[in-house]
């Protein structure tokens, strides 16, 4: 694939170089005189560059189509959260509108550049104003944007409304250089108070040991979520800014030292279901093919081969946070309620951990 | 023809300018002549641009071939930052940070706006120089000093600033958080503080000059759109840069004097810091209160240049002059109330997100009007495809492509999942990076004959444009798609997420296009340097343009016009204007420069 890319680019460069040498030689031949006039575009230049503009416009169309086809599977798969479906349809609609405008305006721009390329004796039209035209192309964006704004704002208000009305489980996501931890609020569904000033020994998240609410909290290194139940995330950072980005759930919130930020969403697809979708099986097999190829090269050099990949939801850091920012991730598991209950029951509460540490 | 060039001498109230003897130092170094200062800005900006682009090539190579040794890394970064030729992650972040800082501030603010505001404002409004030549000189030398300090920070032992060009604290405030936040960040802040002082002196000068020093007849509604753009840009700069200065000062205090403006509840390297009660979100507000207008500080001059170049080379008036001015004003006003769209997921109150979505999508309207007006200006024109014209058309193209994705990013809901991904990187590079660079190139190709009295080589210019146009789309269009996959920016390598493995080839493609595009700039460098010394001598008005700068004749003197300053009788866009009988208003030439009085029977249109 790499070889193919390099060949493609080499070919492209060769074609451009050839075209350019053509322009240069034609320019020299046609300019005749050696004075400054030779450096001002003449009819020949106008025509040639006008044609190039047309080709370039067509090239943009081809590039756009090629990208949408070749990169079709780059788009994130269907959202695995309740609000994500709404998000996806808003994104889809916006993209369609954008692409329509893009195709029309780029077409006109490049076509006009070709069509009206300068010729000796051609008279340009003195056309300085037209109120009606300007009104039209002010009004159309106003109407379209008003629609998008309203739709966006309604969704935004729904998504950001982090209330407790639908009985969400409260989970803290805790960020530090360079990793994540999760703190479940336990049976009382209330997180114990916490502050970095309480960090000591086994109490890595700085939970107030005197706060009764914190005793049943559970700290884990993986994020397990029961399917179809709202989760209210509370984000806290120990050191610098981080951003908790859950791409498959269409969720993101910065994690800010000194304050607690929040985001609520309802996961709707379990990890098992998500893995077995057609999109994901294809994507994963493609990725594994790439990894096999890469492993062959690695082994040939005496390096360790790559492990085969199996999809799991992940949370990643999306705000520059230091040297290892690129590797700050946490596995997310969405599972049936029973599985979740069984898993959480196995975890140690903070009360137990701290008591053990003291002994 | 003769009528076009000769300057009207009637009512000469200003009898020339008295020449003072100039030495090498006063002419080329500590010059107070706005034309020389403009050239100093241009050349400094281009050198900074070369450095900024070279940095991007280095980190693009790392992204295409992650953690693989490369001779270029060893050569430029040395053993300390590229052990065994493998780039250090801290150096990667430093390169990303300085690439952003240098390109945004040093190339596109100073190099673009500094060059052309200085060069064109006095020439196009009919003034002998800026309101204060001395402050103008100080402004350049402060800019030069800040450039030197910024470059010097590359050589600090703990490395240059590496917290991203947005330098969000606490990362930028604490040396414990990353080595680049030590001496490197101190130098960054000092350099930027000086840069802001430079920018303010420059901007105040531009504003005063445009308001007070227009020649007789040059009403505000007769100003070329370039001047409108520079004027409004300077106003935004005066409004917003001081806020960045205050942010920088508060950050310096947090770093060095133990205050807590932006810091609170931090545990790092096994210790709790004493800072309490500050908020990084406050810094984000202060930063983006400059940071967003900054986008337009970069872009408006490019759009102004494009307006002028497109009108001249289309041989047509710019379509909708008043709408263009209104759009510039609307963009300028709105630009100061949209900064929150960089902070939708910062943890600020979601209600603010709604407000900023509203204002942000509003700004799409004047932007759309401008794009449509450019396209209409081309319609039924007689397009002269000079290199400057090609770059202007290219600008409109990238401005549209990049601007449209702003509709996705400006919508708080949609921003949630594309925030800080490569989608954003693709968006802003097209809409403000590439577009503004095209504006810069258009300006250089168009006004080079005025600056150096020589012509640039058009064929090299064509080669430069077409290779750059292909390369720029090749770099930034596919980049949207890796962003759509949820690939975060500022990652040293993506190999820790197997999910991104299938994006690796696209990253290689982007890198090769980037190298290709960077090499294409050599056409420009060669052309620029060669033409300064060996270019063909330029005619007085090579593009047959209407604006006043082409009336000075070829003598390069401090004071611009050897004789009296020309007076202005019409707007700048009387291209191909005809009388009722269908003849050009000045028989035999398709343009009527601003200093030519209205002809018999000619009507001044109320534009």
From TrEMBL, chain A:
Domain of life: Bacteria
GO cellular component: membrane
The keyword Electron transport belongs to this UniProt entry's keyword annotation: yes
A family per Pfam: COX2_TM
Transmembrane segments: none
InterPro entries noted in UniProt: CcO_II (IPR045187), CcO_II-like_C (IPR002429), Cupredoxin (IPR008972), Cyt_c_oxidase_su2_TM_dom (IPR011759), Cyt_c_oxidase_su2_TM_sf (IPR036257)
EC number: 7.1.1.9
Keywords tagged on the record: Electron transport, Membrane, Oxidoreductase, Respiratory chain, Translocase, Transmembrane, Transmembrane helix, Transport
Membrane topology (UniProt): Multi-pass membrane protein
Subcellular localization: Membrane
GO terms, biological process: ATP synthesis coupled electron transport
Molecular function, one GO term: cytochrome-c oxidase activity
Family: Belongs to the cytochrome c oxidase subunit 2 family.
Protein name, UniProt field: cytochrome-c oxidase
Organism per entry: Nonlabens tegetincola
